[in-house]
Amino acid sequence: MNKLFFALPLVLAIAACGDEPAPAPADSQVAAPEPVESLPAPDQALFTEKYAEACPEDDAVNTAVCRRAGMGSPDVVCEFGLGEDEYLRNKATLTAQDGGWAFADPENVCVG
Fold it and tell me: Of 19, 58, 88, 96, which residue has the fewest beta carbons closer than 10 angstroms?
């Protein structure tokens, strides 16, 4: 009887473990994020076109490299060379405006 006295609480505790309610099922519908309209990254061709419009009297852009100004920044910094210059000696900042790219400081873009 002594053994049964000590074993009975253990048996009751194990039997009670199976009576827990099952967790509620997770919601299977996940809200999809809304698409964000974004401009394509400016490349050398786009920068060349924008520079020619802004500075028709300067030499044509020979080479250009554009990068984001910083994480989360809407601006793009472009380094470029003019005429026969193959080095990236000049800088200009493009910013998103009216669904396209425009110079952030159009008065100070032209080199010549």
Answer: 19
In this structure, the number of other CB atoms found within 10 A of the CB of residue 39 comes to: 14
Closest CA to 68 of 102, 101, 106, 94: 94
- By DSSP bridging, strand 100-103 and strand 75-82 are unpaired
| Half-sphere exposure for 65 (CA within 13 Å, toward CB) | 5
Quote the CA–CA distance of 95 and 70 in Å, as a whole number. 12
Q: Supply the pTM of this predicted model.
A: 0.65
Confidence band for 39, pLDDT divided at 50, 70 and 90? confident
Other C-beta atoms closer than 10 Å to the C-beta of 47 total 23
Q: DSSP secondary-structure letter at 107?
A: G
Quick: pLDDT tens for 43-100: 999 999 999 999 999 999 999 999 998 888 889 999 999 999 889 999 999 999 888 9
Helix ranges restricted to H, 1-112: 2-17, 44-54
The amino acid present at 49, given as its one-letter code, is E
Q: Which residues pair with 67 in a beta bridge?
A: 77
